[in-house]
Amino acid sequence: MEDWRWMEAGALGRGIGAGEIDPVELFETYAAAIETHELRDRIYARLTLETGRAEAEAARDRARAGARRSPLDGVPVSWKDLFDTAGTATEAGSGLLKGRMPERDAKVLTVGRAMGLVGLGKTHMSELAFSGLGLNPVTATPPSVNDADAVSGGSSSGAAASVAFGLAAAAVGSDTGGSVRVPSAWNDLVGLKTTSGRLSLAGTVPLAAKFDTVGPLCRSVADAALMLGALEGARPTDLAGAGDLRGRRFARLTTIAEHDLRPEPAAAYDEALDRLRAAGAEIVEVSAPEIEGPMGEAGVLYTTEAWGIWGEEITARGDAMFRPIRERFEAGAKVPGGVYVAAWRRLEAARLAWAARMAGFDAVLCPTTPNLPPKVDRLMEEDEYYVTENLLTLRNTRIGNLMGLAAVTLPTGRPSCGLSLMGTAMGEARILRVAAAAEAALAA
User: Superkingdom of the source (predicted)?
Assistant: First the structure.
């Protein structure tokens, strides 16, 4: 049973369907591992084991009756602590929301539960989801699986750690500027950033609603496809026959994304591209100058909306927040309305230019992060280092959010180094099939 903790979610689901795995025994295996794990309190903000146990029992009854609701019916997962859970505190990692008790579940949680996902608990995160690092002295800072003294990546930091440490079969997080992909990359997982509007944000604590998205963190592309299906209540993308890169054409993004790469991510990226070429892919270097303006104005676009949502609360009780996070929000108070509107108009034009430029490619490639997980102590001690590392961490992933794309990060085989594949808006099915082929090539 201990082996179950390290299996893919899809394999667990198939075991349940075949009568080889009892959903209640599976749940209890994870519950026991969580309760005895030395890093539990740095990963889970709170557990929902009583509810999860009832969900597992219902999944067992459905399996015995041959009435399973999805391929993942009965599989235990974690939920980032910004998805409302009726009767369970949802605080989004912030002192501003301490003790906040929702009366109803988030829509995506309701759908996931209806499809048979079994909840283990709520995971720690960057405060109000406004950091790519995962550092959170207000609640807890989850560890990277490759270095317990380093951050896990944010803002879905505990989500990634829950899977990487074998304390959940998959996790549900959110991605506004990279918050699914960064922690997935730093914990050697697969992360799917969905297109804005693909999955409901109802009942989700917002950061910047025009960019906020919901997405899974998993052990494989196949699991990401199954989780997406479960979260939207639909048939998952069929990945059959997707494992061949011959004839695939990729754009290697040279604008911004390859600047200032640290040695390890740079080497991992080169090795990954070599494997893709060896598997038959064509890789073309592509410059995209249209992203330079939006990347320079990202602070305007994000902080203005974030301040519009949270400014009143922060003005009243900002002392309850981690200072660097509070200061990021406060930057939005200084942006005139006309500047914000003009920045959005330029972003929309850039999206059209990007779509035209990348139309002939199966995916756009870049390193998921230019850096490795920084040490917790240094981030706490050096303010300038915190700011520069946070901005660098989110630089490449933010491209996908600004351009409004579906995107996947894959492990490269080097610890905490990910490969990003960016697709098109609402192109989740296509990018998952391409990512499955790339995943196979990287594992060869």
Answer: Bacteria
Amino acid present at 171:
A
In a domain, 287, yes or no: yes
Active site residue 156: no
Question: 143 with 285, same domain?
Answer: no
* Known active-site residue 179: yes
pLDDT at 218: 98
Cα separation of 408 and 371, whole Å? 18
Residue 307 lies in a domain: no
Spot the catalytic one: 131, 152, 155, 420. 155
**Alpha-carbon distance 435 to 33, whole Å?**
31
How many structural domains are present in the chain?
Answer: 2
Residue 319 located in a structural domain: no
Residues 334 and 203 grouped into a single domain: no
Note the pLDDT tens digit of each residue in 118-136: 999 999 999 999 999 999 9
Under DSSP, is residue 342 helix (H, G, I), strand (E, B) or coil? helix
Choosing from 78, 80, 144, 157, which is the catalytic residue?
80
> pLDDT band at residue 242, thresholds of 50, 70 and 90?
confident
**Is the domain of 217 the same as that of 263?**
no
Q: Are residues 224 and 288 in the same domain?
A: no
CA distances from 155 to 38, 310, 322, 383 (A): 22, 17, 14, 19
Nearest in space to 223 (alpha carbons), one of 373, 11, 370, 5: 11
- What is the amino acid identity at position 111? V
Domain range for 357 is 249-296+328-443
Is the entire prediction scored with pTM above 0.70?
yes
Q: How far apart are the first and last CA of the chain?
A: 28
285: left (phi over 0), alpha (psi -120 to 50) or beta: beta
Tell me which of 70, 78, 131, 179 is the catalytic residue.
179
Helix, coil or strand: residue 17: helix
Structure tokens, 180? 């699914």
**pLDDT number for residue 132:** 98
- For the stretch 398-437, pLDDT in tens is 999 999 999 999 999 999 999 999 999 999 999 999 999 9
Q: Is 155 a catalytic residue?
A: yes
Task: Give the CATH number, domain containing residue 182.
Answer: 3.90.1300.10
Q: What is the pLDDT, as a whole number, of residue 243?
A: 75
**pLDDT for 141:** 98
